[in-house]
Amino acid sequence: MKYLLLIVSDPTLPSPEPGDEGFDAYMGAWTRYTQDMIEAGAYGGGEALQGAETATTVRHQDGATTVVDGPFAELKEHVGGYYVVDVDTLDDALAWAKRLPVGTGAVEVRPIFPTDGF
Question: Where in the numbering of this chain does the YCII-related domain appear (predicted)?
Fold first, then answer.
């Protein structure tokens, strides 16, 4: 079963940028996590996302479609990235979510709707 690990954090909390002290260690933790997932055969993909200020939202409502700069709602937290894991159970997906090196933040774990046969 595939699960989405949606990485959510407070954009006001600092995280190291390229060239900052601690950046290599920060990125190393993410690289090791991803490599562990690949080696376990659970990796189904993943990407980091640019900031919420770069978002564009297409909203469909009452037969009309509008395009708006920015995220879909006022946010105190933002989605920073995601992983797709392909594992046997929700408990397996939760185990990967618990290992994510997010520091302060949350990981929403959601099953991906199977579209096989459609």
Answer: 1-114
